[in-house]
């Protein structure tokens, strides 16, 4: 008999029931309607391959000593949630977990064999970067990275359960001689552990470098160390993390701090970026220099308009930093070319903000005037071409 039922934490289970127990193909929808799973049940328990679509972030935000009413918002997106094999109601063997990313083929992935409790724990677990080639491989405990080294994927093969398995490059990990990475999320008081402040993400170190910007009066900028295809991660963007309810901490330290000069208040906004989950990331003035902080370099991106823009900001997870932001290329970027993003500031939010970003609005107005003039010339020539934004 085919039927449906609802239980706590699950919105809907749909499948075939035999003597009151699920049997055969099953479809499960989570209580929050974020995740849907296609699975196989035997005598009422999952037993076989399970595919879950819909991502939920793996990493809660850390509680900092100055935290006030920290409200952790679960980050959810479309994409792979889980793929693996269940044995008698519990994950077994090789499994894959999707991590928050822009879209299905821009996700990072957690991969490995689960332990006897069905947890992704052990010394042979991998975080696979969104390019699905670079890897942080080592010790994880229930999806939390404890000690991992940088590797690459050599080959992919399917096992007997039709689950994709990965062969990792390199010799066995040597945690004493190699750079070790671990879960080291920021808070509103720290950017990273002291020993890791200038240890750049290894993927980022192979992908971009900091050099003089081609944009006038912009200092240094990020440049491609290799040819980048559209949709590749160019850089990561971490820093001090302020939760949705922690805005008062940041405001009192910066925006409403009467002891600060106008220049200092303006600096408060230099690297501030909002996230999709209601938090904000900031780089304090003491860590502006690369010699003080280079765990990630996304904050060094310079602003541009129109066709010169070749990247965008998106929500992402990283096993070292947690839920942060990454920069994706929106078009191919050849080796040596600068990565440019549009900051997307808006007028009228607050008079202080309008004053601080006056330089941006002046450049935006200049760009719009130029594009309108080009459009008028095109119309006069018989071509009605709208500006490319």
Automatic annotation (TrEMBL):
Residues annotated as transmembrane: none
Domain of life: Eukaryota
Gene3D superfamilies xref list: Histone H3 K4-specific methyltransferase SET7/9 N-terminal domain, SET domain
Gene Ontology molecular function, alphabetical: chromatin binding; N-methyltransferase activity; protein methyltransferase activity; S-adenosylmethionine-dependent methyltransferase activity
InterPro entries named among the record's database cross-references: SET_dom (IPR001214), SET_dom_sf (IPR046341), SETD7_N (IPR054533)
The protein's name: Histonelysine Nmethyltransferase SETD7like [Oryzias latipes]
GO biological process: heterochromatin organization; methylation
One family name in Pfam for this protein: SET7_N
Keywords: Methyltransferase, Transferase
GO cellular component: chromosome; nucleus
SET domain location: 206-344
